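Quick one, tokens below:
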């Protein structure tokens, strides 16, 4: 909450800005009389009332923006995630970098619903994609980029078969996974 004196400052600032804009400032020799509390009645209410409206308006605009992007196939929403591709085929490191540069990471399906959403993009571009999953430098199991263990997988039959030499994972157009070398050219799909 703003203090009472803050409202007076805001009111004064508003008065000065307005009067300068209209070139109708009262004589500024000495401060204008400070209005009593009654003079500012209603100001706090109107200030508070505008904030929820602005936030509702913003949500509504974002909702419409997302709908337009989804309609054009630019983004896909699944749960709290948003998925998008730049349509580029690059190696694993470059794909991860382009996602991180814009505040996301390489898409990694955490459940079947997310796997299907990523598969839809793979199908849309008809290109296999790298997933945000890899083996550590030394071997060990496949993990998410942030080092967490997998809690969902959708390996193709007989995969992974790289015996540790294929440290990255690609998604086929049927949504199944295959372990793959990290220096191939695969579609970049990011999650946000
Ligand atoms: C795995 O964990 C994530 C949360 O970290 C959750 O969203 C997801 O549904 C889980 N997947 C399964 C198959 O339980």
């Amino acid at each position: 909450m703003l203090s009472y004196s803050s409202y007076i400052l805001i009111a004064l600032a508003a008065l000065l800005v307005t009067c300068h804009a209209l070139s109708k400032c009262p004589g500024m020799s000495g401060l204008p009389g400070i209005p009593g509390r009654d003079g500012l009645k209603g100001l706090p209410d109107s200030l508070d009332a505008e904030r929820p409206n602005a936030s509702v308006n913003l949500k509504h605009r974002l909702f419409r923006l997302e709908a337009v992007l989804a309609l054009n196939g630019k983004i896909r929403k699944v749960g709290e995630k948003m998925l998008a591709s730049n349509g580029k085929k690059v190696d694993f490191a470059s794909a991860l970098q382009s996602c991180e540069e814009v505040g996301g990471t390489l898409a990694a399906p955490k459940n079947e619903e997310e796997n299907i959403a990523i598969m839809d993009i793979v199908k849309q571009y008809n290109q296999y994609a790298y997933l945000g999953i890899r083996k550590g430098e030394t071997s060990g199991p496949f993990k998410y980029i942030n080092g967490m263990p997998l809690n969902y997988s959708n390996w193709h039959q007989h995969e992974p078969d790289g015996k540790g030499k294929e440290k990255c994972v690609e998604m086929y157009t049927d949504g199944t996974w295959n372990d793959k070398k990290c220096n191939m050219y695969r579609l970049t799909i990011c999650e946000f």
